[in-house]
Amino acid sequence: MMKKAYLILEDGFELEGYSFGYEGESLGEIVFNTSMSGYQEILTDPSYSGQIVTMTYPMIGNYGVNEEDVESAGVQVAGLIVKEYCKHHSNYRSNKSLGDYLIENKIPAIEGVDSRKITTHIRDKGALRGGIFFSKENAIEKLKKFPLMAGLDLASRVSIKEKYDYSEAGEGPIIAAIDFGIKTNILRLLQESGFKVKVFPCNATIEEIGEVSGYFLSNGPGDPDAVKCGISLAKDIIKTGKPCFGICLGHQILSLALGGSTYKLKFGHRGGNQPVKNIKNGRVEITSQNHGFAVDFDSLKDNADIKITHINLNDNTVEGIEHCNLPIFSVQYHPESNPGPNDSRYLFDEFFSKVSGKK
Amino acid sequence: MPKRNDIHKILIIGSGPIVIGQACEFDYSGSQACKALKEEGYQVVLVNSNPATIMTDPEMADSTYIEPITPEFVKRIIEIEKPDSLLPTVGGQTALNTAMDLYHMGVLEKNGVKLIGANVEAIEKAEDRNLFKQAMIKIGADVPKSMIASNLEEAMSVLEEIKLPLIIRSAFTLGGSGGNIVYNREDYVDMVLNGIDESPISQVIVEESVLGWKEFELEVMRDTADNVVIVCSIENLDPMGVHTGDSITVAPQQTLTDREYQNLRDLSLKIIREIGVDTGGSNIQFAVNPEDGRVIVIEMNPRVSRSSALASKATGFPIAKIAAKLAVGYTLDEIRNDITRETPASFEPSIDYVVLKIPRFNFEKFPGADNRLGPQMKAVGEAMAIGRTFKESLQKAMRSLETDRYGLGSDGNQKIESKLRQLSADKLADTLEYYLVNPLADRIFYVKLALEHGWSPERIHEMCKIDPWFLYQMQELVESENEFKKHVKQNGITVDSISHMKELGFSDRQLAYLADCEALVTLFDSGAENQKAYAEKMNFAENQIREFRFANNIIPGYRLVDTCAGEFEAYTPYYYSAYDYDDESRKSGKKSVMILGGGPNRIGQGIEFDYCCCHASYALEEEGYESIMVNSNPETVSTDYDTSDKLYFEPLTLEDILHIYKKEQPEGVIVQFGGQTPLKLANHLLENGVNVLGTSPDSIDRAEDRERFSAVVRKLDLKQPENGIAFTKEDAFAIADRIGYPVLVRPSYVLGGRAMAIIYDKESLADYIENAVDLSPEHPVLVDDFLEEAIEVDVDALCDGDDVYVAAIMRHVELAGVHSGDSACVIPPVGIAPEMVELIEKQTSALAIELGVLGLINIQFAVKGSDLYVLEVNPRASRTVPFVSKAKGIPVAKIALKLMVGRKLKDFNLSERKELDYVCVKEAVLPFKKFPGVDTILTPEMKSTGEVMGIAATFNEAYYKASLAAGDHFPLEGTVFVSLNRASRDDIIDDIRKISAAGYSIAATSGTARYLKESGIECISVSKVDEGRPDILDLVKNGDIDVIFNTPAGVRSKQDSNSIRQVAVRYKIPIVTTVPAIKAAVDGMMHMKSDDTVNVKPIQQYHS
Prior knowledge:
The complex is a heterodimer of chains A (359) and B (1104). Chain A is globular. The relative contact order of chain A is 0.14. Chain A is built from eleven helices and 19 strands. Chain A folds into two domains: 4-143, Glucose Oxidase, domain 1; 155-356, Class I glutamine amidotransferase (GATase) domain (Rossmann fold, 3-Layer(aba) Sandwich), CATH 3.40.50. Chain A is α/β, with parallel strands linked by helices. In chain A, β17 and β18 form a beta hairpin. Chain B is an alpha/beta fold and 1104 residues long. Chain B contains 39 helices and 38 strands. In chain B, β30 (855-864) and β31 form a beta hairpin. The longest helix of chain B is centred in the middle third of the chain and has 24 residues, at 468-491. The two termini of chain B are 39 Å apart.
């Protein structure tokens, strides 16, 4: 018999379910993701650091977990909430069940709760602090003491501490990828585009990075405005006049360095079905997204150097920008997907063209 | 991009009659397209031969042609209407093929008609298997090894490349017609010949077998700006080898990782772009090897399909409506999502529930049909269920099927279970294995039973190849059942245990059974005499569970289908139930009425009832009520979230309906319009305090109960064929002796004439009772005098309790003895004397008033000489209501609904009825082609799947049109085979003379030939079946016969006629069997020969 567990939110919202992961208390920001597949990639995405993820798709664990579909070295979420956990999985690539994987990685998880109720609650109330508890005692007090996401520099926590070379062989131009919590698939795609990729911690300085042909600012967790080291590095990168590409947190940091501002969305965009319009060619891309903050449209609209290149068709938020005079651009969404659609892979090629000067 | 201004008038081709593989999903898609295009200000011209559709309602298009969907007729419509564009993608394969024919005939170019939605190149690339294969290879997609053969010789050389077992399909067919799995050389030869014959381009495709692989479908949409979205992924529970229309399917896909799913998505985008479908929806099917993930592209439909209707209902994304808007130039981001209002249609729906589609079969109607499922579709309908989890959805789907099952087994239905209990352990294992290996209609129950017997999912997987994930899910259900049984033994039923089981989707009936299964099984197995006690005990126990639940507030909440998994607020009240105990349904405070739909299509219960339910909903809106639709059939217009104010996508069982009733508290419930499904619940609803609107359940019972009805007939001094009720075999013999053979026999309380037969002697009667029905005191058999040579008449009438309006009298073309659903019929009743018409009207009024009908009544009469007999009275919407409405231009169903909520007939100005100056013929469409070897003779048991209507100035022309629309192809020259009984000879001789003079050759059996020669008509004599070879069958098979006129002479020549019919069906040769039909066919053939312009006219003109 599985152990009872409770999902409790700071506003008193409470659901009872069963634990199917590690049996330990966990607190974080409660968010929901609407992807119907890809739970392993989501669990291992460092951008979810500090967050407890509710999967809106009700059956999770169907295909187990495997060795390949990981986006970082370990499980990054603070916890997982599902309607029904599938104890039995089936897929030719799987090597263990999701439950065992979570227990190994010491991640609490709760099933048997009404995930839709949580989702609509967050939709109406906005992102809230919450936790998976095994005793209801003092839960609310603990939550009230838990730090809010706004103002939190989580990127420094998940970033690597020492630089390393992701790819050594090859003839391609060298770029510096700044790790705010970078997903493995970004590194993989940068390499496949033709780059030699050196990865740096988020507190690296422009001098420490040294001579490279371009810069990449990665995705990552937390409030962009709190990542002071990153913003200052981005300003230095802009000054070099060299090509720079940012994704998600990287996009927000770049925007901040260019004089824009960011704000916290009510409940964020997390899923694999977000429509984004590429203003340059009028095409709609179905994108993978995971962000709780966004770049303020008004903060950039008077900046003659900056052009908005992509917007979200659901709520008209900024999804991409580029510099009019410098080879600098960034997107809020995840062109590397994993999980999600691969519609926007062209951005990696564009970055390569900008760096190599080749079309 | 804004909508196109270079087009103004758009022709939409519908899909024609309901046939296996092409059902009312195309009424749903066609209606959506009509509405969407009219909304945009385009003129819409529609052609569809099926009168039972919503799309052929006069207000759906500017000009509606209920005419045969043949290139000749559509050409004429194009010449008259001069549309500037044609949308060929919303009418199934029929529309697509017709559009291609028109293109090849040069009609489109000559008349300046542009194809919109899909272009010719794209259609050819997607439909021609060879071109498709080349395209797939070009984009680097894997396809099964396949080769094309146009003759046997080519086919034999294929065997050197592709090993058995393999798959044979024929090119350009719908529903996988002509597709088969072949295991040996002998079958291979047969299948190749059959497949070449089925294919309009005489080609078969021989394919590498991917039997047992996982099967997936993606619904893709593309717009003119090349934006592409996937609306839905669907996984087939039944692996490759079973046609997707016959498979249980699940949305979204369940067993692929995101990486594997994105690979299918990437491929789909590449495929739709490479094939070049400009705009609109397509369906792409993939097979995935479960061992290594290898993906093979199976096929693509460059049009909306059965799966796209399912995907629309499953996600709330209306594919056909959006496809129509894309076809006129809009892009996805310019179209708003109706449900969320704020967000655009350029997104991919995310769902937070599990959808299951389950096929409905009707093999019991076709004894001798091969009931093994394969690549050729055999299902006649489907049900869909929505649940929060797979388990809940599966249980709901099983009880939506209308097969007397209330979940995945353990529901008290002992049909399979009791048989298995009688087997020894060895025999049981063999039996289970047989049913697991061979995919028959109820394989899923055997999977469940194997699990109950402790078989491991792995062992079961080896036999049926169903993905272990699904098997684990079912195993978990079995485990829960065992825990529940144990729990009840120890603690009785408790709130926790019942709540837990309800979350898993168990019905009250299942819980009632599980709570007491040992005693129930003992009672069931204790003998036939205890069946009644068993049934009563089950019902009682079910009620007890329900009472316990209601007392403890264990009731479901309703969740929204919102396209976005809750991310945005939804405004469309489209609901499903779940035991999450959270409720999102909103009461408006308006007075409301609940309409119970018809459930899955099956023979006898089809689109006609959905038509009536939709009209009930429209009428409620007109009367200021909120309409609440409940149905489980994803193909229909009634389950479009646009049709009613609220839609509950739920099984139509007492339990599920009571929940909605309690929640919504409507003024009443309509059971009259959804056919047998809601009707049989009427009494139970009443017992549970539900207000049933319209004719009271007691009146329904008075009409349906034989004895009570006989009393009504006696009271009104009407005539009824002599009859009796047999509770035992001896009763039956005695009654038959009393009234004299032939007799008409049938089980009581049936729809569609299930197991109805005409019996000519005692021996056959004994055989019938032993083999065809389960005769018992509980299930008596009705024995009626069969009126030979009588003419049957159907009447649809409206009654408000005081006044009666006879909407139409229909004369059957076939003589009495053929089920009314299978018989052609005509409005006005050609050939019935005015005095008789008056008598029919008088008796109809008397019956309607006497029975207290409020709404619709359908009566079947038989006219024999000057006598009028009442055969049957149904105080409800009948199958002919849409036909009558289209023929007369009167919205009969709407008026009926309004009467039920208090209006009077005099409000509708129906009194001054004008004589029709045109004739409408309804003809039935039969599915025999899908069931080779089945007896094709028409009987009192209904077998047709659909109907068509012919409308013209004369009976002959209307009948001829109806025959064409039903699929008969009358040639302009060739040989007519004639075999006539004595009674019909003199009536037809002049017609035979006419066709002979027109240049047709005549062939006849010896007796007929002698008669023709005596009458001066030249003909060749042909041997009957037992008169030596070559006989008539050989001639048909050799292609020497083009049309058959055969009036069978009673019992003796039945066998002969039957084999001729079978061969004719197989070789698609028109066979005409009645005098009026032969006259009409001859007239039509003469007309086509003398003048190749056909007469067409929109119904709006007929009605004005």
